[in-house]
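Issue 218. Parser rejects a valid record. Input:
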Amino acid sequence: QVQLVESGGGLVQPGGSLRLSCAVSGFTFSSRVMSWYRQAPGKDRELVASITTSGTTNYADSVKGRFTISRDNAKNTVYLQMNSLKPEDTAVYYCNARAIFPRRDDWGQGMQVTVSS
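Output the parser choked on:
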């Protein structure tokens, strides 16, 4: 059974930091491209950051220099370190695992991140 379990979200003040984690099971973690998406109220879900099986990373322009995605294949976990958080980072954050062939997407349940004073 495929599971993606997210943790680490919550309320933080502007300028603060959070580290999100996504622990997976039920598939070969090292074979998947792992990503974090987010969806703010009234907006479409957007890609925040991704990391390939070889460790190549990609970031949305809005988070470059502030967020860092990483993966630990031994722990079947992907992380998102978020620094210098802004109110506009407030959203529900989702973990995604993508298989390229055959194409398949698995999602976590989502967790709230709120940046507010």
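Fixed in the parser; the record now loads. The chain is about 0% helix and 55% strand.
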